[in-house]
Here is the input.
Amino acid sequence: MRAVLAPFGRGPSGGRPSRNLVLDYRDDLRIFPDRWARIGLVLLAFLYLWLPSQQVSDAGLRTLSTIGIFAIGAIGLNLLTGYTGQVSLGHAFFIGVGSYTAAYLGAELGWPFLVYVPAAALIGVGLGVVIGPFALRLRGHYLVIVTLGLIFLGRHIFNNWTSVTGGNRGTQIRGADMSIGPLDFSGLELFGTTYSREQSMFFLVWALVALTALLAKNLVRSRMGRAMQAVRDRDLSAEIIGVDLARTKVGAFAWSSAFACVAGVLSALQIRFAGADDFGLFLSITYVAIIIIGGVGTIFGAIVGSIFVVGSEELINQNSRSDWLGPLVSTGPTDAGWLSVGELNAILFGAFIVGFLLFEPRGLAALWFRAKAWFLTWPFSY
Amino acid sequence: MSALAPVLAVTGTDLVQNLIGGLALGSKYALIALGFVVVFRATGVINFANGAFVLVGAYMTYQFFQTWELNFYLSIVLSMVFGFLLGIVLEAIVLRRLVGEAPFTVIMVTIGLLFIIDNLVTAVWGAANLDLGDPWTGSVVEAGGIQIPHRDLWAMGFTGVVLCGFLLFFRYSSMGLAMRATAMDPEAALAQGISARTVYRVTWGIAGLVAALAGTTFATGTGSLQPGLGLLALAAFPAMILGGMDSPLGAVLGGIIIGLVQQLTQLLAPEYMEWAGRSPEIVVPYVVMIIILMVRPYGLFGTPEVRRV
Here is the structure.
């Protein structure tokens, strides 16, 4: 048996493998299944170290950090929506909670970074556990509407809990500690080189992206993760075969909101401001758009989706005065343009959501998987 | 009522006045909720784009009445016709491709449409507040110290007419029967020779038509016509949930309850609910909705969903 399989599977001789041949469970569960994945990983690590050096401007790095922050939040939402099938429009609320936690515990009370970030994650877990039980009684449509209500309730709280949130005017975040041990991410000094705030932020954010991606990837292949996917595919059947529905759904909410709170903390540190108006329906929809465009139910998709969505937004912002966008977009009240930048972005989001769901429901990740399959199965790529 | 007055810090007249105001507000919500219900009933889809239909309807009435200076009632009718066509076109282009997809997909597509249409409306008509105006501006009916604006009476009248129309339509017309059949069991309906495609299309048309009327009732008067109206329409969700998602009568009752609760909160909150912060009436519909969902997940008149493996 082995002699037959080996040449197709991983033997040095013999033809090209007709597909990813899986011989046992361990292969199936491997995070980096083959040589190419490991090469890609090395490339990514190289990119991570190389990008913040003088090659990329501070503005460019800020965009890259924003992408990373959205990726962390999107990984969280994907755990809930993509893997557990609980559609939530309330993600922006948790992002907001994280932001205000950074503002209050980090900037106002001056707690150290390594305390207020876990604290934010724990607050996320706590809120997830409080809100999760709603998902037990309500399914599908009803849950969407309740989580929509969460946004409005959240905004009301953010606007009125003035002592913590600064009310309508929002709150500035200045001087929050950003050091892990000897590394101070508000301006790194490493091996005699001083890095700018943007460069340091890039290091911090993308290290956390890698960490959360790994964490999420491990979570979804664990017992909990398989329970989550069973609940997504058919919750009643999952319950019958012994999945604890309550624990799984509430757990998914807890994980998702913990990730969202961490993303909120980072976004507050990045823009140094938290205001209630930023945590509305639009932000929630942005996150949903990210996971739909990137690929629902893949960790990789959450990151690709962030690159796509934040990147396209940035592209529009930068080209709003160019020849091809200028006539369409107005940049000021006196401008003759037809749409504001925000409106154009919102229209594009809408179009992307509709377009992807109609024509490529599995998102950009599917394009990648298909391309990979095409090369792997060549010359039988049909 | 006046016996209650000494207990509360408001006069009895105030209370009655506000109850009637709440009733009028509630009937506006009810109109929007009816638009949601008709689509959910026939196709099992929560149509987030209904907010966009409401917005387009209000602006089209403005276009006919203010810009092209047609008769007000004619403008409403034309705007409703436009809404009907918009619904049909969207169904034909987008939604018919989504028959049988998961709720998540369909909800997100309608949200995508909401964003596209909302922002296109802003692009066409601008973000500033506009005056839709109406033939009854300022006119009120007075009865025992209580003033009821004509505008509110019309809103209640519209809701009553639309509700009766719905009930009669579903009860007596063959199209209404076809809709109920399709909602109940699409395959069996198809086997009986009902065209599901036509049913879905007409459903979306009706949703657009009712939404146009709802948008107009919300935006009449001075300076109430603005792009935020599309999101205001989302406030009708609690009304729909409260009544049960598939019951027109429930939508109207839910709308009225939400309207009353909201109006009374606005009246009483400054006095009794200081802890709730500024203008809690904005979120109170959602609080009511969440409480109701915890007690009766299918609303007051909704049909409980039977789950099968």
About this structure: Chain B is about 65% helix and 5% strand. The first helix of chain B runs from residue 12 to 43. Chain B touches chain A through 45 residues (CB under 8 Å).
